[in-house]
Amino acid sequence: MKKVHLLTVLASIGACAQQASAVDLKAGDWTVNVGGIVNAYYTGVSCSGDAVGGLALGGKPLGGKPLGCGGEDRRTTIGNGLLPSGLVTSVSSTQGGFDVTAKIGIYAATATDSAISQNSTVDVRQAFFTFGRADLGTFKLGRDYGIFGANAILGDMTLVGAGAPVQATQRGRVTLGHIGAGYSYLGTYGQIVYSTPKNDAGIGFDFGVMSPVSDTPVIAGPRYSTRSNPQVQTRVSFAQDGFKAWLGAKTQRFVAQTAGAGDLTMNGFEAGASYQLGAAGLLVNAQSGRALGILSDADQGDVRSKNFLVQGTFKTSDALKLGLSWGRSANDDNTVGTGGLKSNANLTAGAYYALNSAITLVAEIGQTRSKAFGGATARMNGGSVGGIIFF
């Protein structure tokens, strides 16, 4: 058995203080690592207020699919939190002077709306290999999480909890944390990424070419497609003595499917920082751009938006961490793609107790608010209790 960081499970999502035990097997020149995640949370929510259009997370959208409470005033689910459950297998070796790794992550949801149907939907978020050297840097090829937004979600305390327990996504998938209410989802892409070695000052650079994606709106049909232009994501980061800072960007050209409609270029920019001083931690992240989307790239079409997340945590002991996080995602303009949605915001208070090196028990309460450009507001009050194991 070997202690490994959550980074071993989530790869490019980043490192987490939580540790887990995984099995390492030697096979010739290769080390085979088998690990994974299992989690479940009892979430209860109640929704009130007005019907807000578009991808409103706080209640029932006007004329769209129900999100916050799944179309009801109240709802209960026992399902995944922000992370799915999954089995992750990786291999590593040194071949011809290069450090080589490969990883496949297979994930599944806990909750469905049926007690007898097969829960056989599999989400293969990761299937990639890397090669590199300490003096050269690392190349990654395959399917993995994106670069843009990775530091926000990996630093989110609700990564090991639920955050906003949106019922429409928890049943058959996961909750949202602060996705759409603090930051845009980082997404999973076919990609080729180069990461430089960190220099003596702690500065590193990541550059990725991603397979272009079409818009995937939840409440309307697709309006854009892709052709020959790949998506590009970049990030420069700095880390030293408990302080981290990053600047990121992404862009992609979308082609309109409707005659007479204009094409769209997604442009996103991000800046953030975190600082860990003893038992206290602080994280701030801001994103701004066009067509960043709520749940996926360009899912609101051609609209400018801003995302902001601030979080403070404090460890009262080696086992218990308390935290408070607030995030908001706001549209600048009332375009057709927004469905009238002006903003989603989520406030979550959480307690995270490390029962042992593998299991963390979690209790969270919070409120998600959605506002329309026309003044309507909706609220979802919710709480989550459960746990997660990394093995």
How would you describe what is shown here?
The protein has 3 helices and 20 strands. The chain has 391 residues and is mainly beta. The protein has a single domain (2-390), classed as Porin, CATH 2.40.160.10. Strand 5 and strand 6 form a beta hairpin.
Structural class given helices, strands, pairing? mainly beta
How many discrete domains?
Answer: 1
The low-confidence parts are 1-19
* Separate helix tally: 3
**CATH architectural type:** Beta Barrel
Query: Tell me, what is the CATH class?
Result: Mainly Beta
Helix fraction by DSSP (H/I, runs of at least 4):
under 10%
Distance between the termini: 10 Å
Please give the order of strands in the largest beta sheet: 3-5-6-7-8-9-10-12-13-14-15-16-17-18-19-20
Please summarize the sheet with the most strands.
16 strands, antiparallel, barrel
* Proportion of strand residues: over 45%
What overall geometry do the principal axes of the alpha carbons give? Answer: globular
- In the CATH hierarchy, the third-tier topology is known as Porin
Give, in order, the helices and strands: EHEEEEEEEHHEEEEEEEEEEEE
Mean pLDDT: 89
User: So, the CATH homologous superfamily?
Assistant: Porin
Total count of strands: 20
Radius of gyration: 20 Å
